[in-house]
Design a protein that fits this description.
By secondary structure, the protein is α+β, with helices and mostly antiparallel strands. The chain is built from 22 helices and 20 strands.
Length: 671
């Protein structure tokens, strides 16, 4: 290599009138003299001989950069060690043959991942450590929808999938999430698709967009129709064939309004092409919309397993956040820990909604965490931290809320409010079974919250029943008890035709459904107690409400925040199952915040119906956790500071301390 270099450089000439000399060669072998110039300092090119000599001297050092430079001796010019032969390399011919023999292809995946692939195929999974969605999930959903559509006129029902969106006028493409009706029936993960259900046969056809060749450069391999058909278990055609396919029969699209958002599905996602045989129904909602919404209200067994998994992942993440929360942290750091756990441990790339990490006064903001209030407050000792966060897996949602004291210990007033909300949950759980009115469940929860306010002295003594009739409960529990949950956090079907209408009463007006419970319904149970300044101001100005309130005592709770506890439950044939396994009792919360293990060795509150589980081979497996047996006649969940377990007002002085204090709480410590 050095000879070749010398030969190449021999073409260069030294400056005219400056012939090379042996002296110049020798002088250039000194590192300090290696410069673009002659030894005498006259500018010029390096001579070929000098450069070759220097390269030979430097070769050992260049070959091994890790060698240490020899120590300088007095009077020396710090010369390099004597040159050693450079390492021998394979001839270029041999290297070319070696490179040509390399196999640069990725080796094929061996179908041996337990519980996720191979002989046990699934529709969706993010790896062996995540839930395996069964291959027949969406096929069963279609069968259930077709059963509800049995009275629908013959024809083709056309459903439009979600479309890719970019941020405002930029080319930034937001992460796509499939439209929920389309996800329910087909499970397609890509945007821009259309699906057709032929009635009454139930024959299904999917239409995929034909992607440009540039897609393969930027986004990856373009799947063939055959590959897409195998992926989704349905015949797939190109979107350009939709008009011809639909020309043979009358076509219908779902037309109806979401009872939570007020938006119409047919307006949010219009047909991508004009269909001449489309029936323009004037009935809103039409038969098609009602049947498809109702098919999402009652969950199949596989859907319940999927929802349980999402709640199991979320419950474990909540417990981890609870263990790590400390004063001095920021709210968004709690959010970050939750998101990390759900993604890394559960395979949940997305969350069901924007996380609410509300601490201190922020915990009274029902939907805190939005862009204008972005989880950016610092946690302070004595705060209540209300964390409403839920994972999403294969578009199926979880929605859980925990409330904990920053610093690890509940203050006296915080304990009363927390226990009141937990008692509200327990009152609802005792009612849950088919045939029960969801409105009655809300009223039962509201009653328990008012009892806690009476204990605090905020509500005047002995007027709980009258105060509830006067709608005082709507001041402190302004949102509904809970909602359907499934492919949307606030899932559809709350106020369909033939079901109870929405109430106008404060509190009940915000209920997202007033239906009678049925087996297979999945809902959240999320009672709360909030001290919201705007509502307190209005209540104190209203004589019909203010007469029940102790204004002086209430003044001390300005800035208190709020408490919410939220679980995901499923109605069974004779009761309910609780998919949420978060710490719930005060002892559990404080133990986990102190570093205790979770799940616990003993279930302190079996009446909460928590269905304990562990993950085994792509699915959840039930785990039995022994429960604590209370003395006969004791009321679970009630508190008795200084008294015997289970008594509501023991001789202990928690209530006494709160009642005996002056007209209001003077500071955070008093909470």
């Amino acid at each position: 290599s050095l000879k070749n270099l010398a030969s190449a450089l021999s073409k260069f000439q030294t400056p005219k009138g400056k012939p090379q000399t042996q002296a110049s060669h020798k002088s250039l072998t000194q590192p300090r003299d290696l410069a673009w110039g002659t030894p005498s300092g006259v500018p010029g090119r390096l001579s070929t001989t000098a450069l070759l000599s220097t390269c030979v001297d430097l070769a050992p050092e260049a070959a091994d950069r890790t060698k240490k430079t020899p120590a300088r001796h007095a009077g020396s010019h710090m010369r390099f060690l004597p040159p050693t032969p450079p390492p021998r390399h394979q001839p270029i011919e041999d290297m070319a043959s070696v490179i040509a023999s390399l196999d640069c292809k990725t080796p094929p995946l061996t179908p041996s991942t337990p519980g996720a692939f191979a002989g046990d195929p699934c529709f969706f999974s993010r790896g062996a450590h995540t839930f395996r969605v069964p291959a027949n999930l969406h096929e069963d959903n279609r069968k259930r929808a077709i059963t509800l559509l049995k009275d629908h006129p013959p024809g083709i029902i056309v459903l439009v999938g979600g479309v890719a969106r970019t941020r405002n006028d930029s080319d930034h493409e937001e992460l796509f999430r499939q439209e929920s009706y389309f996800q329910h029936l087909f499970g397609v993960k890509e945007p821009g698709w259309v699906g057709c259900l032929e009635m009454p046969s139930g024959t299904c056809t999917l239409f995929a967009p034909e992607l440009p060749k540039s897609y393969a450069v930027w986004m990856g391999k373009i799947a063939t129709r055959s590959e897409l058909s195998n992926r989704y278990g349905v015949k797939v055609k190109w979107l350009s064939e939709l008009q011809e396919h639909c020309s043979k029969a009358k076509c219908y699209v779902p037309r109806g309004r979401n009872s939570d958002s007020g938006k119409r599905i047919d307006e949010a996602l219009p047909l991508p092409v004009e269909l001449p045989t489309l029936v323009h129904s004037t009935t809103i909602p039409n038969h098609c919309f009602v049947a498809l919404a109702e098919s999402r209200v009652i969950k199949s067994i596989d859907e319940r397993k999927l929802l349980r998994y999402a709640s199991w992942v979320s419950s474990n993440a909540h417990a981890e956040v609870m263990r790590e929360a400390k004063a001095g942290m920021m709210e968004y750091q709690l959010e970050a820990r939750f998101l990390y756990h759900c993604a890394s441990q559960g395979g949940c790339r997305s969350c069901a909604y924007t996380s609410i990490c509300a601490c201190g006064p922020n915990s009274a903001v029902l939907h805190y965490g939005h862009a204008g209030a972005p989880n950016d407050r610092r946690l302070e000792t004595g705060d209540l931290a209300l964390l409403d966060m839920g994972a999403e897996y294969h578009c199926y949602c979880s929605d859980l809320t925990c409330t904990m004291p920053v610093g690890g210990k509940f203050g006296p007033a915080q304990r009363i409010v927390y226990e009141g909300v937990l008692s509200a949950q327990r009152a609802v759980f005792a009612m849950l079974k088919p045939g029960v009115s969801w409105t009655d469940c809300h009223l039962a929860a509201e009653n328990e919250v008012l009892k806690a306010l009476e204990l605090l002295g905020v509500l005047k003594k002995g007027c709980v029943t009258e105060a509830q009739r006067a709608c005082v409960g709507g001041v402190f529990l302004p949102c509904g008890l809970g909602h359907f949950i499934g492919l949307d956090t606030h899932d559809v079907g709350g106020y369909l035709p033939g079901q109870p209408a929405r109430s106008t009463r404060p509190g009940l007006a915000k209920l997202r459904t007033a239906r009678t419970l049925k087996q297979g319904m999945c809902l959240t149970v999320e009672p709360g107690c909030y001290f919201i300044d705007a509502l307190l101001d209005d209540a104190l100005k209203d004589p019909s409400l203010s007469k029940f309130l102790n204004a002086d005592r209430l003044r001390g709770f300005r800035g208190f925040g709020g408490v919410r506890l939220e679980d995901v439950v499923c109605i069974t044939s004779n009761g309910f199952e609780n998919f949420t396994t978060c710490p719930r009792t005060i002892n559990e919360v404080q133990a986990v915040m102190a570093g205790g293990t979770w799940p616990p060795p003993v279930d302190e509150a079996p009446d909460l119906g928590r269905r304990w589980a562990r993950f085994v081979n792509g699915a959840l497996e039930d785990v039995s956790v022994p429960g604590i047996v209370l003395p006969k006649g004791a009321r679970r969940g009630s508190f008795s500071p200084g008294g015997s377990p289970g008594t509501r007002r023991g001789s202990g002085s928690l209530i006494g301390r709160v009642r005996a204090s002056s007209g209001s709480f003077s500071g955070r410590e008093d909470y």
